[in-house]
Amino acid sequence: MDVIAAALSGIRHLVLEVSLLDAVWVFGGLLIIRACRHAGMWIYALIALPGTLAHELAHFVVAFVLGARPSFPSVIPIRTEHGWRLGSVAFRVGYARALPIGLAPLLLAPLALWWGKSFLHPASWPLYGLHVWIVAALLTASLPSTTDFKLALPALGAVMVIAVIVLMVYLYS
């Protein structure tokens, strides 16, 4: 629990050090990235590229560490029956490894906060705009995709059942 408390304290510290003006610019960057979805697939793919690369690398690194034998990430957009897939990583996974691999992009949110704290404030224009774009792309990429949730859902369900059982044993013993 001390590790979790320390991590949450560190994240809180990072959030408090990002200025309101920086947050407004990053929010604008998020809106621009979102709006680029309607500008055409290739424009959106290029605007989202740093985030897509980070998202797929998060899956790759966690899968590699857990021994899931991942393929190298692809960031070439591919048309599917449901739209476009901007990137992918293939790996072998069981239920135990599915949860951390599927939810690995969540690790990009603290990275985005750190990047914003470290590079936004001291930068001058045009580097400031580049850093805003990187932070916004990392925040966008930190959300697991529908496929990521489908991969993690069985393990997440098992973890929730175990947590409820542990809580019930704790409360009634």
Could you explain how this protein is built, in words?
It contains eight helices and two strands. With 173 residues, the chain is mainly alpha-helical. It has one domain (2-171). β1 (78-80) and β2 form a beta hairpin. The two termini are 21 Å apart.
What's the arrangement of strands in the largest beta sheet?
1-2
Question: What is the total number of structural domains?
Answer: 1
* Biggest pleated sheet: 2 strands, antiparallel
Report helical residue fraction: 55-70%
Instruction: Let me know the average pLDDT.
Output: 86
The oligomeric state of the chains shown is single chain
Number of helices: 8
**Helix/strand/pairing class, anyone?**
mainly alpha
What is the strand tally?
2
End-to-end Cα distance, whole Å, is: 21 Å
Quote the beta fraction: under 5%
C-alpha geometry? globular
Low-pLDDT segments, ≥5 res: none
Rg over C-alpha atoms, rounded to the nearest angstrom: 18 Å
Order of helices and strands: HHHHEEHHHH
Short description:
The chain is mostly helical. A hairpin with a 2-residue loop joins strand 1 (78-80) and strand 2. The protein has helices at 2-17, 20-35, 41-47, 49-65, 95-102, 108-120, 127-141, 146-171; strands at residues 78-80, 83-85.
What keywords describe this structure?
single chain, 173 residues, mainly alpha, two-stranded antiparallel sheet
